Amino acid sequence: MVNGTGREDGAHRDWQSPVYSLIAFQVLVFLLTHGGTGLVPAADLGLSLRSPQWWQWLSSGFVWARTQDLFEGVFMTYVFGRLVERQHGLVGVWAVFIASVLGEGSSTLRFFVFG
């Protein structure tokens, strides 16, 4: 939206942030796995400790065990995602998110499997 000065309105531009798409997808996956729908078993999306599949390395970033975990993940995604977005844009947001999910999966396997 353009305001009276001919510049784009900051509030409108704010809602175009890729961080909101990430958050919406996290909430959607949580609702599909925990919302009583039973459409997608959460165990299939999370990183399996016995035999991890390649796609679970990325899908595990969208799976939360409890509502509190979802809120904490959404908060962190918003706070750090917006900081990264201001400095590095869309590519930076996705790069940091993917690196974080892969790092989380690696540390999970390291400490829980290879102890």
Description:
The chain is an all-alpha fold. The protein has one domain. Helices cover 66% and strands 0% of the residues. The chain is built from 5 helices and no strands. Helix 2 packs across helix 5 (67-112). It is globular.
Which short descriptors sum up this protein?
5 helices; 115 residues; single chain; mainly alpha
Give a concise summary:
The protein is built from five helices and no strands. The protein is an all-alpha fold.
How many β-strand stretches?
0
Main beta sheet, described? none
Provide the domain count.
Answer: 1
Return residue spans where pLDDT drops below 50 for at least 5 consecutive residues: none
Judged by helices, strands and strand pairing, the structural class is mainly alpha
How far the N terminus sits from the C terminus, by CA atoms, comes to 54 Å
| Shape summary | globular
- Annotation field: number of helices: 5
Percent range for β-strand residues: under 5%
Indicate the mean pLDDT: 82
- Write the H/E string, N to C: HHHHH
Radius of gyration: 17 Å
